[in-house]
Amino acid sequence: MRRLSQKGSTLLEVIVSTGILGLLGVLLGAGLFQMTAVTQKTGAGLQAQAGTSRVLLQLMRDVQGAQSTDLVSGAPSVGAASFSWIDETETSHTVSYAVVNGDLLRTYDGNTAAIGRQVTSFTLSRSAKLITMGFVSAPPNRFNVSVAKSVTVGLRVDG
Fold first, then answer.
1. Are the C-beta atoms of residues 133 and 116 closer than 8 Å to each other?
2. Beta bridge pairs of residue 93
3. Which residues are CB-contacts of 66 (< 8 A; sequence separation ≥ 6)?
4. Contact 66, 85 (CB under 8 A)
5. HEC letters along the chain
6. Could you give the CA distance from residue 18 to residue 64 in angstroms, rounded to a whole number?
7. Cα separation, 139 vs 149, whole angstroms
8. What is the largest CA-CA distance in the chain?
9. Listed residue (49, 93, 71, 50) closest to 153, CA to CA
């Protein structure tokens, strides 16, 4: 009688290959999780950077155009200030900044708008015609990302 050759895998081979595939799955899953976490952290940081940059750009425009302010030269930093100027049509304008409940509010000629969110620190100080502004924003996220920026800008000099 002729014996048929048996083809297939032994139980040991099946167990070893299943273990190897399981290990590869765990490693790939961990790598994918890590890549997702890095992407989210980077996104949170970029969002905070963009928001802070927009706020400082608006502040710089207002301060550079201002002719006067309620900031006292040489006094300690404060968390709110007003700036005034007269434009080319002889119209008087006033803008003020203050943080209320974590929002940086800009009031321009009586109209108030929030220009920054999740503000944890906002300071202004004056030295002669130079205004130094500091701003820290910490958007809520699981990565504890915060962005701090500071800039010094001169008031408009007429003449």
1. no
2. 85
3. 83, 84, 85, 95, 155, 156
4. yes
5. CCCCCCCCCCHHHHHHHHHHHHHHHHHHHHHHHHHHHHHHHHHHHHHHHHHHHHHHHHHHHHHHHCCEECCCECCCCECEEEEEEECCCCCEEEEEEEEECCEEEEEECCEEEEEECCEEEEEEEEECCEEEEEEEECCCCCCCCCEEEEEEEECCCCC
6. 68
7. 15
8. 117
9. 71
Handedness of CA 48, 52, 54, 55 (dihedral sign): positive
Question: Which tokens sit at 132?
Answer: 């130094």
CA dist., res. 74 & res. 3, Å (int): 103
**pTM tops 0.85, yes or no:** no
Asked if residue 105 lies in contact with residue 97, where contact means CB atoms within 8 angstroms, the answer is: yes
Q: Which two tokens stand for residue 92?
A: 């008087």
Block residue for tokens 């130079």: 130
Tens of pLDDT, residues 91-149: 999 999 999 998 899 999 999 999 988 888 899 999 999 999 998 887 776 667 778 88
